[in-house]
Amino acid sequence: MSRNVLVSSGPVNYGQTFSVGPHKLQSDETLDVGGKDVGPDAQELLMASLGACASITVQMYAERHQFPLKGVQANLSHTRVLGHNSTDSGAAIGMVDQLEMEISFTGELSEEQRNRLFEIANHCPIHRMLTLGVKIQSRLLKA
Q1: What number of CA atoms fall less than 13 Å from residue 138's CA on the CB side?
Q2: Entry pTM
Q3: Chain-centroid distance, C-alpha 80
Q4: CA–CA separation, 81 vs 75, rounded Å?
Q5: Residue 34: left (phi > 0), alpha (psi -120 to 50), or beta?
Q6: What is the CATH number of domain 41-143?
Q7: CA–CA dist 71, 99 (Å, integer)
Q8: Domain boundaries defined on the chain
Q9: What's the pLDDT tens digit per position in 63-86?
Q10: At a CB cut-off of 8 Å and minimum separation 6, what does 49 contact?
């Protein structure tokens, strides 16, 4: 079960403070869009969540199956690419967001183990959420 996340705007332009249980973190926009860059922006936090989830999922799997995994590194980036319609026509539908994740493993792993860990990384809960979709329900609270 996940904990609630509380996000509050801060005193500096677009700076945000958020709390997750006992943890306090900051987010902001970069200088070029008017922020003060006091923390990662929202897209960077999303990429960090995906990378962390993939890494943790791989580590748990390797531990359960006694793979000699020593470390995981995930490098993520965001781009906008031309999307295509899912119908047979394949017609372009405009620009869509694309996250790219390069993942590497350290340890004396066989090629079969490396391939399995890569497959597992692409089935972490955040990856599933992003690729299968998520329903978001928002409510406006009374003042």
Answers
A1: 1
A2: 0.87
A3: 16
A4: 19
A5: left
A6: 3.30.300.20
A7: 22
A8: 1-39, 41-143
A9: 999 999 999 999 999 998 888 766
A10: 126
